[in-house]
Amino acid sequence: LTDKVMAVASLPCITQDGRAIEVLLNAGLSAGFEHSAKLGALGIGLYRTEIPFMNRNCFPSEQEQTQLYRKVLQVFPKHGVTMRTLDVGGDKSLPYFPINEENPFLGWRGIRITLDHPEIFLVQVRAMLRANQGLNNLEIMLPMISGVEEVDEANRLINQAFFELKAELTKDITTELMSASNEDGHLTLQQAQQKAQAVTAKVVRPKVGIMLEVPSVIFQMEALSKRVDFFSVGSNDLTQYLLAVDRNNSQVANLYDAFHPAVLNALNSIAQQSAQCLTPISLCGELASQPAGAILLLAMGFDKISMNGHNVPRIKWVIRHISFEQAQNILDKALTLTTAKEVHSYLNEQLEALG
Ligand code: PEP
Ligand code: MG
């Protein structure tokens, strides 16, 4: 990256006329992204928990997961860290959890697996909640949601884990207080319990959000918004499912395009509906790390975009060199175009004009 671009890395991501969009990081391996924290990202928008599950030979224990998540949360103690629950299936497999099916991207994937195996889900959520104790910057995100029942069931399990952990913590603190007061007996059991409850009352349930990546959610946003704290678009999967194009099949790679007019209109509708529902909206797919994509998302009204660390300076540079009004004009025109090819040539022209 040029010095010119790197110079803006730690500056706020704000347009020339003062419109802000937050830039966050996508992360999966704990090594390496501490550096990106210094590149001026405002937290983690997507931590892909399945990655550390992949290069092992058995499920990590609750304790192992707690330690790992704690390290991740500590990279941004003052910012939100969004951890996505296990998103295996599709093209991501665990050697110790084989899945054999004909259409894996349409099959047993993401939340579908973890709701069928609540023991896997509960251990993971408990580990996240434990790691969050005292930090309180965790946000939980659910992948591959296609309807409200999945959200209700996941929320039920998250609440279960939360209240169980709170009860355990209260018990542990009570025991500690009692043994400390054993010598002079200044506390009754009831007093110790009350003190412990006062401490655990401060343990807050983290925000819970869902990924918008299955097209069915575009038509259920109001009902979904009542059940969650935030939405985050997974544009990689949304593109794949909206266009019915396998994201990894080179035979049809020319058809896979996040700038396809149908995808842009879906994203615009998502942004408008989120605003109506007063639900924060972000995007964590590859589209956010492309300058033209970031401009369109800014104009649509996305609150946050999340990307790999090395893209942060470049995207900030672009946003800082455009006005919100210019971006809106570009979006308005782009939404009238009818093919991906037209969209690309129009956006390329606009980017060249920006320098
Ligand atoms: C996406 O689908 O856009 C996304 C961010 O998740 P993943 O690429 O891990 O499926
Ligand atoms: Mg996805």
Automatic annotation (TrEMBL):
Domain of life, source organism: Bacteria
Family stated for the protein in its record: Belongs to the PEP-utilizing enzyme family.
Name of the protein in its database record: PTSINtr with GAF domain, PtsP
Lineage: Bacteria, Pseudomonadati, Pseudomonadota, Gammaproteobacteria, Alteromonadales
Residue range from the parent sequence: 421 to 775 of 784
